[in-house]
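User: I'm designing a mutation panel for DUF1737 domain-containing protein and want to avoid disrupting the core. Could you give me a predicted structure to guide residue selection? Please restate the sequence first so the numbering is unambiguous.

Assistant: Good idea. Sequence first, for numbering, then the predicted structure tokens:
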Amino acid sequence: MTTPPDGLPAYRVLTGPDDATFCRRVSEMLELGYALHEGPAVTFDGERVIVAQALIWPTRP
């Protein structure tokens, strides 16, 4: 597949609290065929850890 399914963008950034729900969202994108783009960004909002993970749709020749 040369483009992401269901009209999804080729570049995505997922954000949220560092919890099982966030990990499932990232895992779902990996299962669709996205690849991680670099490592995650992590911050603390005073109450919890917040994570951002960029994903890209790999280009295949």
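For picking mutation sites, this is relevant: The longest strand covers residues 49-56. The longest helix spans residues 20-32.
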